[in-house]
Write a structure and sequence with these properties.
Layout lengths: L4 E5 L3 H13 L3 E5 L2 H10 L4 E4 L4 H14 L3 E6 L4 H10 L3 E4 L5 H17 L1
Parallel strand pairs: 1-2, 1-3, 3-4, 4-5
Length: 124
């Protein structure tokens, strides 16, 4: 069982719930918030190993990702419906470690990828 921690930032309760339950079943400690503001408050009190964020609304998500990349050790991945080239490129420029399109992969794939990214970060 894993002891990693994950913060999911997504206003879509359906997807957030699916991913939270799958990560919890894999042994992760999961917190879910709907807004970047709530995420910032939570992270001030308790850092996490990984953050999975929907980039909608784009105008708050991208600056948040930039700040996470600069100020934390957390692995940051995007979970979104937005698959256009501009959004993907801006997310990568902001410092995301992975990009998942909703409905195009299994939660188990996200679990494995986040675990690998965290382990790589720890060993580097």
């Amino acid at each position: 069982m894993s002891k990693y921690s994950l913060l999911i930032v997504d206003a879509d309760a359906y997807y957030a719930g699916i991913f939270a339950s799958r990560f919890e079943a894999a042994g992760w400690k999961v917190r879910v918030v709907e807004t970047v503001e709530d995420a910032e408050l939570l992270l001030e009190r308790k850092p996490v190993d990984a953050v999975m964020i929907d980039v909608e609304p784009f105008e708050t998500a991208i600056p948040f990702i930039h700040a996470l990349h600069r100020e934390s050790e957390s692995v940051v991945t995007v979970l979104t419906n937005l698959g256009d080239r501009k959004t993907i490129e801006e997310s990568k420029e902001a410092g995301v470690d992975g990009y998942f399109l909703k409905g195009h992969f299994f939660p188990s794939e996200a679990i494995q990828k986040l675990k690998r990214l965290i382990e790589e970060r720890v060993t580097n």
